[in-house]
Amino acid sequence: MIPRLLTNVHDVAKAKPQSAAMARRRNNADALAASPTLALAILAVFLAFCARSASAVGSTPHSAFSYKDSDPDGPSKWATLQKDWAICDSGTEQSPIDVAKVEVSKDLGPLENTYKAGAATVQNRGHDFMLNWKEGNGKLTLNGKEYTLLQVHWHAPSEHTVNGTRFDAEMHMVHEDAAKEKAVVSVLFSTKAGKPSKLLGDLVPYFEKLTGKQNATEEVKDAVDPAVMIDKASGYYRYEGSLTTPPCTEGVIWTILSKISTICLCLIAYQVSDASAEQIDAVKSEDKTEEPNSRPTQKINSRVIRYYEGGDKESTAAPGPRRAGPS
Description:
disordered N terminus, 3-stranded mixed beta sheet, globular, EC 4.2.1.1, 13-stranded mixed beta sheet, single chain
């Protein structure tokens, strides 16, 4: 049996590759009948904060590079911009990648974490909103090592793809160990269907306060529990990669959940329950400054993507042909 990604609509992993914008251009008269003012408000916030992106954890200034390949500082030219960015081109373990062939690994198991509700802040980084825990939040254990959860942010469209299919958005949960080595848990999002995220809904007031205030920060009134951000029953893909923006440092452990979260894309940017992806797309055509904050996929080279099936056996799994892992 060839495994497939989980959605509660249909198997998007087997669909022909398409951009997030194409996926959102489906006709939906009922959706378009809703308030254009609401959609415009959501769009304004989304575009303002997704124009540029920092690395998964890096501190590279947001103005130092671009995501448009036609720009002189676009992705294909990152390696030429600074000497210590050369690995963006010469590296053999770069991220993101297309998940196509996987190896079922018997030595992998459920994700072990000690996430807990804790004090957090929301920051307007100029390209997105970042949810940050000042003292870190709980631990993720990988290969016997503990990584502290530091922050969460989003990319749109997704950086990683599956069988060539790019999803509407991707969330990165950024971790770091005592030696400053990085581990990122990734969650892919689809607008095929979805229910509002209560956690993101609770953050709306902070998004509103921070709109237009680059680098400003707001303390979140109530403790934020990152445990609700991941599905414990989901399988996942594991591989070694890099930061997804300059300096493209390698040695990052990536864990991509195989179960697709089906909240609406608009909820990621500005959590308003009743706005549809179609409404947002209709308004986007009026704004020509839209720019994604996602790096193109990189060569996998000799790397092996390991796969853990997870607890949801009914429709879990990985894309493409799979090989038996070590016994």
